[in-house]
Sequence to fold (259 residues):
Amino acid sequence: MAPIPTRLLTDRAMDSIIERLEDCTGRFEPAAEQILQSFELYRSKASTQAPVAQLVEGITQFLAIAAEFDARSDTHGPRAERQDAGELGDYALNLLMELTGWAVQLSLEEPRRALESLTLSVTDWIMRHHGKIQTLEAVVDALANTANRLQDPAALERLTEFINRLVANVDETIKQDLESSNPGRPWRILLLNRGIVATRSHNTQLMEQAYDELAQYLPDETGRFFAQAMQQMEALNYPAHVRELVGRYYHRFTRQSMH
Fold:
C-alpha cells in the first residue's frame, strides 16, 4: 500500500506499541523540558508569546488527575464516569496537539515521538474509562507516524486492533461526517489509514472489518482505495491470501462504481 499520509491497549502484549498511561508519563517531563528550553531560544528571536509553559502545566495536571482517577477506580468500586473521562481526556488531547505542534516547529524529533506516544496512551485511557473520543486530529497523526515505523505484521496487527477500538469509541458527532467535503478531515484519514495498516498486518479478518467499515462510512472512497491497493499487491510482494482478498474487494467495488 502507499505510505500512510501523516496528518493525516489494555492487553500487556500491546505495551511496545500503545503503553498504558502510567507507563508512558515518565518520558513526558524530559520531553517537555527540552521543548521549553528550545522555545525560550525561539521566543527570543520572535514576537510570539505562545503559552508553551501553560501547555506543559496543563498536561502535568491532567496526568496527576488521571492517576487519581485510576487509584479511585481500583480501590473504591466503580470506574470513572464516562463523561468525566471523556472531558478530561479531550482536554489533554487538545493540549498535546498544541505542544506536539511546537515540537514539530522546533524540529525536536525525540520529544515529538514522546508526545505522540503519550497521545495514544491518553486515548487508551479514555477508552478504558468508557469515554468517547472527541478530538481525533492528534490521535490520527500519532497513529500514522507509529504505523510508518512498524514493519512486523504482528505489530501492525496489534496496532489495527487498537484502531478498531478507537473507531468504535469515536464520538457519534464525528461519525456523522458532517465535513465530508474536506478530504483532510481526521475521520476520513483514520478510516483510510486503518485499511492500509490492516492490509500490512496480513490478517484477513482484520482486513475484512476495516474494508467493510470503510465501505460503510466512506462509500465514495472504496473504488479508488482498492484500485490503489491492487497496484501495490505485486509491487510489494504481498502474500497470496492478502492479494486474493484485496482482489475480491477490488472487483466488487470497481464493478459497483461502473454502474
About this structure: Residues 52-75 form the longest helix (24 residues). Residues 155-259 form one domain. DSSP finds twelve helices and no strands in the chain.
